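During data preparation, a discrete fold description was generated, and the record follows.
___
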Amino acid sequence: MDRDGPPRLKLIVITDAASGPRLCRGCGGPLMPSAKSTAVFCEDACRSRHWRRMRRARTRTEAVKAGVTASCQQCEAVWTVGIDRPVSAVYCSPACRKRAWHTRRAQFGEV
């Protein structure tokens, strides 16, 4: 044995001549031969990952269609609300937030 550790299992893919191998809808990898005939995901983690990805895509599409934007109070950068940054965001980055804090502090003579 050339490798260290336990031997690895080989994945055997059963293919139908007409349709080819059954592939996972999430990652695109082949499904195990022992998977149910109705299975579309290779494992639960892949199913969850696919569901989260699709939910984010739906949210992004809805936000872009709504066209709600906000701008940074410090540098005037514009972003789509709820997608690029949280709905409650006031500044575009921690650097702008810090710059605004320094500006406020200097304005009130606390330096």
Remarks:
- Residues 56 and 83 are 9 Å apart (CA to CA).
- The two ends are 70 Å apart (CA to CA).
- The mean pLDDT is 81.
- The chain has two domains: 12-66, 68-111.
